[in-house]
Amino acid sequence: MISETGRVVGIEDHALWVETIRRSTCGSCAAQKGCGQGLMNKVTDGRRNQLRVLLGPLAADSFQLNDEVEISIPERALIVGAMMVYLVPLFTMIAGMALAAQYQPGDVTAAIGALSGFVVGMVMVRLHAMYIQNKPAFQATVVAKYDPSLINSVAINATAYSE
């Protein structure tokens, strides 16, 4: 399980809308200038992500807006999601190109086949996303709710010891 903290921005019956801040380790990488991920992080710096998180055994009544929560995402969801988003459109694009080239040789036909295959792959990704939308095995869930009174008391005790 991969954990992340966030702030509650919406409450539903069986789910919360949680806002998380994008983090990156690109500051310590040697390939900063040649990396597309580093460029995207610079462009979207400070933006926040909102995602729907299932409550699991917890009750929606115990949460309020702006509560800090810890959420957990199964590794399986990330692996399957990455394979669906990156590999399926690539394979369908190559298959579409090969299939179109079988019936009509030529670059234009191959390009149209590749584009058609890519669109089919994107539709498959969207259908898969709709299929797993409410399946708990693929969804983020709330693990814990932070109590602000405990956090403040810890911070107060920490400053008392540092003096």
Automatic annotation (TrEMBL):
InterPro entries: RseC, SigmaE_reg_RseC_MucC. Keywords: Membrane, Transmembrane, Transmembrane helix. The keyword Transmembrane applies. It comes from the Bacteria. Pfam families: RseC_MucC. The chain crosses the membrane at residues 77-102, 108-127. Signal peptide: none annotated. PANTHER family: PROTEIN RSEC. This is SoxR reducing system RseC family protein. It comes from Zhongshania arctica.
